[in-house]
Design a protein that fits this description.
Order of helices and strands: EEHEEEHHHHHHEEEEHEEHEEEEE
Strand content: 25-35%
Subcellular location: Endomembrane system
Protein name: MHD domain-containing protein
Number of helices: 9
Number of strands: 16
CATH architecture of the largest domain: 2-Layer Sandwich
Number of domains: 3
Strand order of the largest sheet: 2-1-5-4-3
CATH topology of the largest domain: Beta-Lactamase
Shape: globular
Helix content: 10-25%
InterPro entries: Adaptor_comp_med_subunit, AP2_Mu_C_sf, Clathrin_mu_CS, Longin-like_dom_sf, MHD
Distance between the termini: 58 Å
Keywords: Membrane, Protein transport, Transport
CATH class of the largest domain: Alpha Beta
Largest sheet: 5 strands, antiparallel
Structural class: alpha+beta
């Protein structure tokens, strides 16, 4: 009644590695691989993220949750009464572990580091217990079992050195796997310079009607952290206005009681890169709602939604005219900020499957290249993607 295991497929649908699946028959993972490959052959561009797998012999009916990650696909068979979001959350955690080990995860990367991948049989067994529940998902703890591929570890492996026993026991970094009393932090970490970095990354998503009125807008953010501190540091992070942070989800290292009482983040951080927390930005509710349609009757629920809307820093208007053998369109993007610049804005317009070519004129063109990054000056450019059938307008804006 939980997650049954993991399967990693290459871009041709062939398995690269899978977990043991000890509690099921040998045909169990093959049923899910075939179910996914059959669904991809019928509709490559629109496959449901959760695929029904019918019963076969002694195997009951199950479901296959899958996620595309570059040119590989990760399958997570589940059985019984399991929320698919639980499986997808575990897949995302597993993808983060892969990124910690290999950087850019792809089939080529897994083949180049197959000596490490071969040890992942043990790693896969550590991430799930016998009952199908997540067991160890901290990259710091898993690195004590299977070392990430580096030039040093490869040279030591060629020389015939026992890398795990050398690092885990002979250098003062602990007595072996899980030697640290803190699950998410390795024991005996040492740095010449003690540093910790925080990046606040926020994403604005909004729904705007054809008149330019904001119907819904939400800002979600996360605190990306890079810790390079020695020993077992105990950190505190405070905010000037913590009331604007709501719907928070923190890393297990954060002391939730301290946050609920004083809105201060108190934690012993993991070593290296991790996400300290995620949140939703809640604007000041004491003011009046912005960008609302006064002609539409406002109900209490719509007023509450409007107050929580975040002001969009620009407006985007389109005018499209379709003809029998083509069409014309006009896109107008205007900045609403008067105090600072907006730069590197990308507006994408989907043209449909029948689009074969396009010719555009950028009103403020000339300064940006085809991709628009790293170009000095103010301007705009455009590019047409013949595969995805969309046009991207890359614009550099000044306050207006």
């Amino acid at each position: 009644m939980a997650i049954d295991g993991l399967i990693i497929l290459d871009n041709t649908g062939r398995p690269i590695i899978q977990s043991g699946f000890r509690s099921t028959s040998s045909s169990y993972p093959l049923l899910h691989i075939d179910a996914l490959n059959n669904a991809l052959s019928k509709s490559p561009n629109s496959v449901d993220p959760v695929i029904y797998v019918p019963p076969y012999n002694a195997n009951p009916a199950t479901a296959c949750c899958h996620v595309q990650c570059n040119d590989i696909r990760i399958l997570c068979p589940v059985s019984g009464d399991v929320d698919p979001l639980f499986a997808f959350a575990f897949i995302q955690t597993f993808v983060d572990i892969l990124n910690e080990y290999f950087g850019n995860v792809s089939a080529a990367t897994l083949r180049e580091n197959f000596d490490v991948v071969y040890q992942w049989h043990q790693l896969l067994e550590e991430t799930l217990d016998a009952g199908g529940h997540p067991l160890t998902t901290s990259s710091n703890a898993l690195r004590d079992i299977v070392l990430p591929p580096t030039l040093l570890t490869k040279l030591l492996s060629v020389a015939g050195a026992n890398i795990n026993s050398t690092i885990n026991s002979g250098s003062g970094l602990g007595s072996g796997p899980f030697s640290s009393p803190i699950p998410w932090r390795k024991a005996g970490v040492r740095y010449a310079h003690n540093e910790i970095y925080f990046d606040m990354v926020e994403e604005l998503k909004a729904i705007v009607n054809r008149h330019g009125t904001t119907l819904s807008s939400t800002v979600r953010g996360k605190i990306e952290t890079n810790c390079k501190l020695s020993g077992t540091p105990d950190c505190q992070l405070s905010f000037t206005n913590p009331q604007v942070l709501t719907d928070c989800a923190f890393h297990p290292c954060v002391r939730l009681k301290r946050w609920s009482e004083s809105k201060v983040l108190s934690f012993i951080p993991p070593d290296g890169r991790f996400v300290l927390g995620e949140y939703r930005y809640l604007p000041n509710l004491s003011g009046t709602p912005r960008f609302t349609n006064s002609s539409t009757p406002q109900t209490p629920s719509s007023l509450a939604i409007a107050k929580e809307n975040v002001a969009i820093p620009f407006s985007l208007k389109t005018a499209v005219e379709l003809e029998e053998n083509g069409g014309t369109f006009d896109i107008t993007l205007t900045s609403r900020l008067t105090t600072r610049d907006i730069d590197r804005v990308v507006a994408e317009m989907h043209l449909g499957e029948g689009a074969g070519g396009i010719k555009c004129i950028a009103a403020r063109g000339g300064a940006a290249d085809r991709y628009g990054w790293g170009v000095e000056g103010i301007g705009a450019s455009w590019a047409f993607d013949s595969n995805k059938k969309y046009t991207a307008f890359i614009i550099f804006l000044l306050p207006v």
